Amino acid sequence: MLSNKRPFIAIIRGGYTGESVISLQSAATLMEALDQQRYEAVYVSISRKDWHCERADGFPLEFDRGRFAAVRGHGMEVFNAALIAIHGTPGEDGKLQGYLDMMNVPYQTGGVLCMALAMSKFSTTGLLRQWGFPVAASVLLHDRNSGAEERIMNEVGLPCFVKPDNSGSSLGISKVKTKAELGPALDKAFAEGPSVMCEALVKGRELTCGVARLNGEVRALPVCEIRTSREFFDYEAKYHAADTEEIIPAEIPNDVTLLIQERSVAIYRALDCNGMVRIDHFWTGEEVITIEVNTTPGFSSASIFPKMIRAAGLEVPAVVNAIAEECLQRGKARR
After folding, report:
1. What is the pTM (predicted TM-score) of this model?
2. What is the share, in percent, of the chain residues with pLDDT greater than 90?
């Protein structure tokens, strides 16, 4: 029988979007990395139909959604902490964080406001623009009306990216080069969500930087350059294309690396992020433009973030266990 002395940790996976399949892979990486001698971790899987709980071997556990508790052999116990591995709603937009706050269960991501803001690409870049961080010009659309194309042409111009405002993994995104392509791109993006962001194209090298709070210190990881033969780093390029290159550390000048790392840490702090976050930029050769903030980045074996951890000379299990321990300590401080 498993001891109930080990902290009881829920790895929350699934979600309501097409990214749920990536969530399962990210959750598996977290489970594999956690020290089972120190913690007892189980999965809590969320879908629109139901929530259920199971051990890593698939054995189902009795679960109480009203208390966020499960039975591991010693009666119903409230989880000591949660590691959220959901990409998209409800784990990346503040909904799950609000629920866990009400249950008084600590988690590793940013809080409700941070996650809700960062889930909206337009809100994130708008706030970053106000704070003085260079971002691309953009416009937000809430409906597919006859004047949408003209507004995009006047306020953003072509070429541009048309993307759902609240989705990840590049789902529903199109690179638009001509006015004739705008209509189909808007239809595709609105099929993913109720609001669409149109963003001016930034030409340059695509760079991303991981940031994590480790042992109380916010730390930038080595910068990664993404190269793909596709029009942009879309879902196919991220998860299936054989010729996508992720070069870590990026082969760029040291001053550009330092600028990206310092800016990524500054954005992490400004948005009040927590846990592991990945921030995407473009380097035009003259300036660095920030594109997006990913507050629950992919964490599968094929994802960029674990590769950046190893490039920093760290081990994935050490980072995951440090984040879990910090989460537990925050929970103890609340009591």
Report:
1. 0.91
2. 84
